[in-house]
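Wait, mind explaining this?

_____
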Amino acid sequence: MTQFFPHEKLDVYAHALGFAKTATALIASWPAVMAVSDQLGRATESIVTNLAKAARLRATENGIYCLECSLGSVLECAACQESR
């Protein structure tokens, strides 16, 4: 696969995409009326998008902020899975 964007070169980005597939399957197995399903979906998207933004911004203050947001979303996903 040809890599066109900086975030596509990150191993962690590939892991985040793999987790997104797992989370999607998990969400599909939960009743749609559960708020935690929506929260897990949004937090998963946040991981992926913030990693992409951080790769573009690199070691700037905004890039570090995006990494912190992504990490926060990882912890949020863990909490969603534990609360289920």
About this structure: The chain has a mean pLDDT of 94. Residues 27 and 38 are 8 Å apart (CA to CA). Helices lie at 11-29, 35-57, 61-83. Residues 6-20+33-83 form one domain.
